[in-house]
# Entry
Amino acid sequence: MVPLQAYLTLAAFIFSCGLYGALARRNAIAMLMAVELMLNAVNINLVAFWRYGPNREDLAGQTFAIFVIAVAAAEVAVGLALVIAIYRSRKTVYLDEIDLLQG
Amino acid sequence: MPELPVEIPIPTPHQAVFIMVAVATSVASLLVVTNRNLFYSALCLVGALFGVAGVYVLLEAEFLAIAQVLVYVGAIATLITFAIMLTRGIMFGTTSPNNRHMFAVMSMALLVFLLVAGLVDRVPWAVAEDLTLSGDGKSLIVDLGWEFVTTYALPLELIGLLLLIALVGAVMLARDDE
# Structure
């Protein structure tokens, strides 16, 4: 068997990639993709803890992962709709150029 | 044959597959956030999501792997590709793809990774001694479905409502006003 730590390290790496992308990228769609990576990393952790935990009859880990997938689907739909609405009115998807509320 | 001073672990097939999937997923997710071309980023995202599905298969959560492929690769990746093509004019920008905080953020992300990776080895996880799954994959999926209609019935309904509201809202937002 692969040790639990290997899965956790992989998830930490994917999460860090997503963290970097979400904060450093200028393009709103690239930022959304990075958020997806972070959600996936968390899901790996949830499933790994379910698989290696002492109580595998309790399927909470898998259930949570499925809820996270569903919420991610909703999030990306609304996020991309916002991006397209902003693109239509401002002709940009660069996050540092969207400063309507800055005053 | 003389004894080696250090025992070199030979990976079992399961471990070898895990190493391949893990490396592929890591490289793909790194490419998602570093690629200049947004379209290549999206393609790498598809690869990374497939890799995560592979990790689920290795963790014997087959239903989740199928759901991952259907929802993420089938729906979310397609949606992102569409959005990239709808905002096409700036897909190949001549400006930098990163903002001015890039190096600070990069060092912070590296720090987070090193911190978590260092912590992972030190925490005494309560790992079960016997790691074999009771029952076959089919009974697991039956149990999962049963959980959804008993213990998690209310969250399931709320998720359904959330998806409905979010999708109607998305249509309203993206619609042309004229």
